[in-house]
Records
---
Amino acid sequence: MTDHHEPVPFMDLVTPHREMEEELLEVVRQALRSARFVGGPQLEGFEEEFADFCEAPFCVGLSNGTDALRLALIAAGVGPGDAVITVPFTFFATVEAIWQAGAAVEWVDIDLSTFNMCPARLEQLCRDQCRRQDDGRLVSLRSGRTVKAIVPVHLYGQPADMDAILDVARSNGLMVVEDAAQAHGARYCSKQHQGWKRAGSMGLAGSFSFYPGKNLGACGEAGALITQDAELARKARMLRDHGQPEKYFHQMEGYNARLDAIQAGFLRIKLRRLEEWNRQRRRLAKRYDQLLEGIDEVVTPSEPSWAQSVYHLYVIRASRRDALARRLAEDGISTGLHYPLPLHLQKACAHLGCKEGDFPASEQAARQVLSLPFYPGMLPEQQERVVGLVREFAASPTVLTGTRP
């Protein structure tokens, strides 16, 4: 049993690595003995296995998730003079990748119930805030740039409504590149594809981060893109390696964005466990749902019938979010804020001229979201302790300072 006063960590990265320690160390030994530190069998093996896992024909291993999205966009043909549509409620890397591809950002608000891109608002943006040129291209009235692509984000492991997003993309001649950095193994029931599809496999390309805390995490930095398009994969392989299809023969300006062999080997070992880890996450999420039921101050995550989330995070909404987080911290329970300020209000985005009130759903989410402790291997009594304190807090008298969630 867990002691009542024992801290509850936000996540546990120590226990699983202890369990896998000998397998992981064998990867290092093999690298030391062979001196295959860059490329080689470990990278090729991981690319093949992750492509199979994602039900996509091509995978390109990369140095991190930001590079994965950036190079996916560049390989797809996004560049200076273009604009890309995404959401303001996501990690900053999403917009960084768009900017670093040379494109401008066009924001569309989220659906508060799923935290993902709202297809109706996306359609409205294309209709009311863009004009169509004689050649059929869509041009942003705000930036004057050609709108080239849409980047939906599968936030917290929850798939966005891809059929609706792809419908808008097709009707407007736009590409879709999925930001699946938090959605390794998540599924979406697609009528267009007549069945369940993995996150990242429905657009032209999908990008993933393997930052250590992700559902599939490396022991350092790592990322990958998957795609159905052989030419995009070929370009991405050149872009990650200084624009060279073979050593010292450069066809384009590229980058140094390779996934190293040791991290690829670590990911191969962990990939074999990912489905079970995701099943544990879904079971833990369902138990949180049940334990939190009936607490009026808390809104639990919503999973549509067409989605199978992998719950990278378990995120509630609470009107007194900051006070609740402080109360939990007092009792040794760690929480997270993903994310406290939407991107359109960040100082780094001030040049876009957005103001508070422009994207109300994203702003409300940023005021109310709280990520509870959550990881495979979390004990039932730990969840009970967390929820007991949430219930106690919700029952406490308070001065109303805002609207209900």
---
Amino acid sequence: MSNPAIIPFLDLITPHVELEHALTEVFHNALRSAGFVGGPMVEEFEKAFATFCDASCAVAVSSGTDALRFALMACGVKPGDVVVTVPHTFIATTEAISQAGALPEFVDIDERTYNMDPEKLRNYLEKQCTIDPSGRLISHRSGRPVTAVVPVHLYGQAANMDPILDLADRYGIFVIEDACQAHGAEYFSQKQGRWLKAGSIGKAAAFSFYPGKNLGACGEAGAATTNDQQIAARIKILRDHGQEKKYYHNIEGYNGRLDAIQAGLLQVKLAHLGDWNTLRRKRAADYNRLFANSDQSLTLPHEPSWSRAVYHLYVVRTDDREGMMAHLKNTGIGTGIHYPIPLHLQKAYSSLEYRCGDFPVCEKIAQQILSLPMFPQLTAEQQARVAEESLWFLKDPIISQKRTTDHSTALLS
């Protein structure tokens, strides 16, 4: 970072510089072996990532979207089915559902965790669906069979999985985790009496290794995890043009393979992921301490007793989100919004005919959420300034405008 007064929302440069020798050696090895797609580097990463997730299998693919799409298809989602998820997530969640041939339907989120509210899921299953004579669960909204639910472990925190799994079991549907932001997150299952890793809880799970994730590739990459060998085998066929061996195609599949170089880079970074996640948790605790006196003007992330979050994002809420965001920008502090428009109100899903007011919790928080700088290399001094500027704005937004102008002038000089 050339200007130390600038605090980026995300620093992707420092960790790559720190690991530059090991990362470039991966490229050199690929050049020497000409192994560019699949092969030993991919297989080694798959084994290591499955172990990290406490899962039996991991299948590396070209993106998190493909990971979720292939997981849904391999678990049995068919064209014409309904898959239930939340409207507060990145659109890749619902794209994967649609691309598997299914229809996304939504339930609202919990206002404190921002993840799927199990009671809203219960209400959907009990009051918005009917079991037909053949035993299928049918959605009143679409008249289609409901076959799966996709809870999203948003911002690096696991959804409340025990009640979701209980409901899914009761109604004969299966659970696929969207763990694209939750590499290493943990959930304490009262039912099992132990901590479970994201990616090991449902029938299968999807991870994204987009560069900004806790474990990020130097490009696009993803993986599906599962404890079912047959599901893993189906995903491997789906990612490779439907072939079990070269030129023998069991089904019509997809080109969803992972480049060997990306797998090698991820293998290098995976060795550091535990330490990076520990640093993210420490940074979140430091933010919580710095913002302890913000009264009711700032809502901090809520981490339930059953959660060990890995803080892919540190998301706060305030009524004057735009004002606070502008103030921080003008003082050299990067921020983000994840996500400003709920999926049910996106133009892309207008055909689903949802309306404003259908999911009030999601719609409310979408107007208030603001993601503050969060990355392992964030310093105590940087965090202190983020908190100072945020609290200054919250104390008196009008006075802060002059202070912001003065600070902006200093940054430009």
---
Amino acid sequence: MLTNRKVVVGVTGGIAAYKAAELVRQLARLGASIRVIMTPAAMEFITPLTFETLTGHPVLTGLFPHEQGGGTVHIEWARWAECLVICPATANTIARAAHGFADNALTTTLLATTAPILFCPAMNRQMYANPLYQQNEKRLFEHGWSVVAPGSGELACGEVGEGRLAEIPEIVEAVRRLLSRKHDYQGRRVLVTAGPTHEPLDPVRYLGNRSTGKMGYALAEMAALRGAGVTLVTGPSHERPFSGIKVVRVTTAAEMSEAVQHHLPDCDLLFMAAAVSDYRPAAVAAQKIKKGEEEIILPLTRTEDILRSAGLSKGGRTHVGFSVETGEEIPASLCKLEEKNLDMIVVNNPLEPGAGFAVDTNIITLLRRGRDPEKWPQMSKQEVADRLLTAVLEWEKEKSL
């Protein structure tokens, strides 16, 4: 619920502006107190009266609304807001916000607020793909602001592709996450590993796995949002790291091991979410291996067990491992919990629908020393990450008693 939480919704001039009315309605149903700011272009698509009816408040449409107290209303609203949501966010408004323009009621309020800001882009697919737009969106992240990525589908122009406004429930959930931010990790130093490793076979091939890094990136993001200083050691991934996180990119298990050993002494919490290859080719061919008539026998050798090595010098640090199993998950993971000197281990089976690699949700079982296995329902990976961070704090509190 969002009872009495103060949300300012900024509506800009795109065809998706009509969907902002549904966003306001759903936020209001959750108990939020809402005020709406509209750009002049937004009023070409939907009227202020719609939002006044839904919110019970006047709509701010200009910098000098005499009926609302003159030219400082945007400052008062900027201070009032606990969260600002720009829905839809056009390419024009994102460009102006990214570069600090303050030429209408909305952009001036954005510049004046200290509340978290969430942008919900919606535009033509070519506009969305344009490098200039992508640079502007990147600047939003650099400012510490959040973005709900647009979906893919049929657009108002008749084309099909990325640029469609994210679904309203997804935006509502993003608002809830922003408003539930805690700062209970302030001063903590967290090391997260993510993604796969690629072990070269020849100049064009490698051994790898299906990990995309989504779970590790979600952990790094949520830890940063809760105030931690985060170092993310990531294998090859297309995921976008959250603003303010120190990112160390690696390719092989050996490179990941070296990076973890280097950064671990400066951290007090390790999340080993990476899917590290257990084996690598015993020898790397200097040239591409040619296809022949005969079968090839490929000798493999073990890679270093990074988590086991980290456990040898654990000290007072908290270590959380991840275990991907497709059968007998709990017994196998309990062995890992002991062998690798872990405090807890996160278990999931990628064969279970809604869990595993390359999906935005996960279904996990959390194992902690001396506790019964705890099965969690299907959640977004951000939600799983947030609950894991809370579970770590609870575990550490128990250990200190």
